[in-house]
Design brief:
Elements: E1 2-3, H1 11-28, E2 30-36, H2 40-50, E3 59-64, E4 85-91, H3 93-102, E5 112-116, H4 119-137, E6 145-149, H5 152-158, H6 161-177, E7 181-187, H7 193-198, E8 204-211, E9 214-221, E10 226-228, E11 231-232
Parallel strand pairs: 2-7, 2-8, 3-4, 3-6, 4-5, 6-7
Antiparallel strand pairs: 1-10, 8-9, 9-10, 9-11
Helix pairs in contact: 4-6
Length: 235
Amino acid sequence: MVSRGDTDTSAAEDTSTFQLRLDDLKRRGSSLLVVGSVPNELYSRASRQMLGAPTEPRRRLTVMNESASLDSRLHPSIRRSPEWTRVIRYQTLERSAAAASAGGTPIQSAYERRVNGGLGRLGSEISKDIENFDSLANGMSPAELRVAFDALPSLLANYERKEVFRFLHAMTAHVRAQKGMVHVWSPGDRTDEVNRMLAPLFDAVVELDVDGQNARQRWHLRDIDVSSGWFPLED
C-alpha cells in the first residue's frame, strides 16, 4: 500500500513510517494540496472528511466562492456558529466590482460573510478568524483548527503566480503556527505545471481520482518521499 520513491523497502516498514508521519502532522500542524481532475462533488467529500467529523470539537474555517454549497461540505449536525464555524465567500477585486454594480445578494448568517478585495485583504480576514478562534478556545489544541481553502483557481486567474505563491506561504504558515490543518483545492493532475510549482509549499499532496464507479485517494508525504497506494474515499 505504501511506497518510497524507487527503493525496495518492506511494505510494513513504509506503512509504519507513513502512519507515524501522518500522526506527527496532526500534532504539529499541516498543509495539504488536494489535486485531481475530478468533479467538484468528489472534492467536497474529501474536504468534508478533512474538516473533521461532527463528534470532533473542531474550529472550522472555509474559504469558498459565491455559488459553492456549504451543505455539501459540513455535516448537518456540525455546530454552525461563529464560535465553531466560519465561512468566507471570497471575490477578487474584479469580481467584487462587477457584483457591486449588479447588486449582490446579502448573506444572512452570523457565521458567514462576504470578503471583497485583493490578496492582502483576504489574508487579513483569514488571520482575524484564526486569532478569534484561538481567543475563544483560550488556546487551540493540536488539530482543533481546520481550514478549507477553495479559492485558489480564482486567485490564479486574477493574480501573478508569484503573488499567489507568497500568499499561500503566509497562510499555511499561520495555520501551522496554531497546530492547525489546512487543505487547498487545486483542480488538475498532480503533474500539472501549477501543481508541481505549488507542491513544495505543502506537507503532502492528496490525489483524488475515479476508478470506474469508485472514488479513491492517494497521499504523497513530501519530506520523507513516502506515498500511500490508492484507497477508497469514503462518504
